[in-house]
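Quick start: read one record
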Amino acid sequence: MYRITLVLIARNEAASIRRCLDSVRPWVNHLLVLDTGSSDDTVRLAQESGARVEHFPWIDDFAAARNHALHLAQSDWNLVLDADEWVTEGGSELATLRQLRPDFVGSIRIDSDFNTTSGSGACASSWISRVLPRGVRYAGHVHEQPVHDMGVRKLAVHIGHSGYSPQAMVAKQGRNAALLERALLETPGDGYLLYQLGKDHSVYERFEAAADCFGQAAQALAPDHAVAHDLLLRWLYALKKCGRHEQAMHLAESQMGRWEGSPDYWFVVGDLLLDWACEQPERSETLLPMIEASWQRCLEIGERPDLEGAVQGRGSHLAATNLAVFYEGTGQPHEARRYRKMAENTFL
């Protein structure tokens, strides 16, 4: 029997830490929380939830904190989570690790809730290596990555993540950007860090800076890098927000052959074309059929949660809703009703 430990670093996470620990407790042998300087009830709540709590001074280095926690855990398997995450599906899959030799790294699905620009909720999925055998350690001050030469297996484990709530984003504002800029001084031109900095700029609506970072990241990263799909989607969105529609469409067309099987790609293209048509109505005659075809293509493909950065619903109810609005706006009430009903059925 191999031992599994939840390894978690936290600071001032009283609002969420109990949810995390309660969701994991049935599936692991131990709960380890490394507190990095909480001034709220985080420590007390963690202890009441059955966790071993240790302490580590925060030195603006996520890898240092995680590595210290992993050193303290001394477990065969380590499940690395943050306090604003929790197990939603696949706990029994975690439990089966007790019978598996720790000779691979496990990738699990993180489903992040966030608000769209319309104020509605959405959920984006990422596959991240979070199940680590003994001895694997992290590198990187921020958006740290485990360093290893082992094979990676996708595990049927889903994790909820509330770190993109409006309250959480206010609390984090400026922190990650400063750490990323410091890291880029040490490793200039690092594509992954540029991608993460672009994400941070985009979240806080610094779209010109975001587009610049994404462009540099695309030049630095290999075309088949794990974040390539998400990078393209975010780059297109940033260019749209900057009003650089023609540049965005040239980019989208250059990537069509690779991502034609992605509903997220077609969803973002349709959104980009609609924004362009609204800004330049004289183009509408050309753009409207392309918008319609893009969102219909989303429904033909269906959901693709295996793709990095996939947003749930772009292959179903979100695309159908957009088509319903499209047909209402173009005077096609029968089609509008059909797609509105489709959206309601697929959302349920």
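The chain has 14 helices and eleven strands.
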